[in-house]
């Protein structure tokens, strides 16, 4: 059953029930009120009759001597009068009663004997009559009873007609309300139907760019459309992110396989060369073995880097502890001096790093600075300079690796932290394009920030900003 039909049936039912209760109470009230009117009316007639009553003859006065007025005068087409003695025997009655007699029950006679008047509904010849029984006194003694009756037939007929009228009108009202309700529910639900259609269309076409157009007022339906659109925004951006992540991952795997294939090809070529000529040509053998050693070294470095990034992608969190920065830097400088070659590597002003503690992983911290210094040395020609400086800055320590090397072209700068990116100038130097991606991950893991400033042909400065833990760890 549709929501529209259910709504229509529900409020038709509620309206029908309300009308029915109203009709029942209205009918009962009217019936009560009309009966009350009749009672007042017949009691009034009884009083009129008594006022015109006189007594003739000598005592003891039998009822016959109580001369009643011509009761026929008080009787109307639906009003009956009757006088009965104490035993309930009719003594006189209005002509319109014909031969019919207004009955008197034992209970009524008892009340009359006690001097009490009473109302009663009786059935005479199939006609319902409302009767007022009033005791007739003579000499302070009840001698009989005056009965004034009014036919209830016209009232019952009127009430029956009214009931039919009420039912008919009620039925018409419920039917009209049902039709109106059906139309209103249709109009109210139409926007929801439209929304459902658009949502189904989006789902079928798998087109997350589509939106629900709603021009109506800002009501519940308007808010539903808005909420759905916000949800679609979210879905679209999440879907796009997922697609980007997927594409990124595919590119990463393709690049990684490509990078791994190159050293493998060289190693295989050298092994084949060794197999063919190694025995006879010691010089070729030495060269081939050196090549194999170099490429193996490069491959293991590449695999190390790939592993580090794979761990980063898998959400690996570094284990950190309180670390004194200066010894870490000293260790890095000692190692860097070993491979600085022709480049003038100098330890600049690192006084600010003295006594500074970081909440860090010392191994990864060393790896971070080694990557930066290694790059600086790699991309700085012989006779160039590489320097490291440290500066304190509002709860942070900034370590800068400054070189006077080839610099980075402005166009390349946004990409240097991406995996496998290598600038055209850098392709002449050995490298994997993974160093800065790892460096950035390490910096992020330490809650820090890395940035680069560079001028092509003049040099680059990589600045790492790390939060200082405290002056001492205790
Ligand atoms: P790799 O050095 O192995 O190529 P990195 O991720 O460390 O990979 O660096 C990415 C790219 O950033 C390098 O290929 C190079 O183009 C550029 N780059 C990094 N450091 C420097 C630097 N000190 N001077 C000039 N270019 C640099």
What does the secondary structure layout of this molecule look like, with pairings?
Blueprint: H1 3-51, E1 54-55, E2 66-67, H2 71-74, E3 79-85, E4 90-93, H3 106-113, E5 118-124, E6 127-138, E7 141-151, H4 153-205, H5 220-277, H6 282-313, E8 321-324, H7 325-338, E9 344-347, E10 357-360, H8 362-378, E11 385-393, E12 396-403, H9 435-445, E13 449-455, E14 459-467
Helix pairs in contact: 1-4, 5-6, 6-9, 7-8, 8-9
The structure holds adenosine-5'-diphosphate.
Would you give an account of this structure?
The chain has three domains: 3-158, Beta-Lactamase (2-Layer Sandwich), CATH 3.30.450.20; 220-313, Orthogonal Bundle (Helix Hairpins); 321-467, Histidine kinase-like ATPase, C-terminal domain (Heat Shock Protein 90, 2-Layer Sandwich). It has helices at residues 3-51, 71-74, 106-113, 153-205, 220-277, 282-313, 325-338, 362-378, 435-445; strands at residues 54-55, 66-67, 79-85, 90-93, 118-124, 127-138, 141-151, 321-324, 344-347, 357-360, 385-393, 396-403, 449-455, 459-467. It is built from nine helices and 14 strands. The protein is of the alpha+beta class and 474 residues long. It is rod-shaped. It has a five-stranded antiparallel beta sheet with strand order 4-3-7-6-5. Strands 9-11-12-14-13 form a five-stranded mixed beta sheet, covered by helices on one side. The chain binds adenosine-5'-diphosphate (ADP). Adenosine-5'-diphosphate is lined by residues 375-376, 379, 403, 405-408, 416, 421-423, 426, 431-437, 460.
Summarize the structure.
The chain is an alpha+beta fold and 474 residues long. It is 52% helix and 19% strand.
């Amino acid at each position: 059953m549709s929501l529209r039909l259910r709504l229509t049936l529900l409020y038709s039912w509620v309206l029908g029930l309300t009308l029915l209760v109203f009709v029942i109470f209205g009918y009962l009230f009217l019936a009560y009120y009309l009966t009350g009117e009749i009672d007042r009316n017949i009691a009034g007639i009884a009083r009129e009759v008594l006022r015109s009553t006189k007594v003739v003859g000598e005592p003891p006065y039998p009822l016959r001597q109580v001369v009643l007025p011509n009761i026929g005068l008080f009787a109307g087409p639906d009003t009956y009068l009757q006088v009965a003695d104490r035993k309930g025997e009719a003594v006189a009655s209005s002509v319109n009663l014909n031969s019919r007699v207004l009955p008197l029950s034992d209970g009524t006679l008892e009340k009359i004997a006690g001097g009490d008047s009473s109302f009663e509904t009786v059935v005479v010849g199939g006609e319902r009559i409302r009767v007022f029984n009033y005791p007739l006194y003579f000499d302070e003694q009840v001698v009989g009873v005056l009965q004034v009756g009014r036919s209830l037939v016209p009232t019952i007929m009127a009430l029956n007609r009214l009931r039919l009228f009420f039912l008919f009108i009620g039925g018409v009202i419920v039917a009209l309300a049902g039709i109106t309700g059906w139309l209103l529910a249709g109009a109210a639900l139409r926007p929801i139907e439209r929304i459902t259609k658009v949502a189904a269309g989006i789902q079928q076409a798998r087109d997350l760019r589509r939106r629900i157009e709603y021009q109506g007022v800002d009501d519940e339906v308007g808010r539903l459309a808005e909420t759905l659109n916000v949800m679609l925004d979210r879905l679209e951006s999440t879907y796009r992110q997922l697609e980007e992540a997927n594409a990124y991952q595919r590119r990463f795997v393709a690049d990684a396989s490509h990078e791994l294939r190159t050293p493998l090809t060289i190693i295989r070529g050298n092994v084949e060369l060794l197999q063919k000529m190694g025995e006879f040509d010691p010089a070729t053998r030495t060269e081939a073995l050196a090549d194999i050693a170099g490429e193996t070294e490069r491959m293991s470095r590449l695999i190390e880097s790939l592993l580090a990034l794979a761990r980063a992608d898998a959400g690996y969190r570094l284990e950190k502890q309180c670390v004194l920065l200066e010894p870490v830097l000293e260790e890095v400088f000692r190692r860097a001096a070993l491979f600085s070659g022709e480049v003038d590597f100098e330890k600049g002003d690192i006084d600010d790093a003295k006594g500074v503690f970081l909440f860090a992983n010392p191994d990864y911290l060393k790896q971070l600075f080694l990557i930066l210094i290694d790059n600086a040395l790699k991309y700085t020609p012989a006779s160039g300079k590489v320097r490291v400086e440290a500066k304190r800055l509002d709860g942070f320590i900034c370590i800068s690796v400054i070189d006077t090397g080839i610099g980075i072209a402005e166009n390349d700068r946004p990409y240097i932290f991406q995996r496998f990116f290598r600038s055209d100038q850098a392709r002449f130097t050995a490298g994997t394009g993974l160093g800065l991606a790892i460096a950035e991950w390490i910096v992020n893991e330490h809650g820090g920030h890395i940035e680069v400033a560079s001028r092509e042909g003049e040099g680059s400065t990589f600045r790492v900003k790390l939060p200082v833990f405290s002056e001492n760890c205790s």
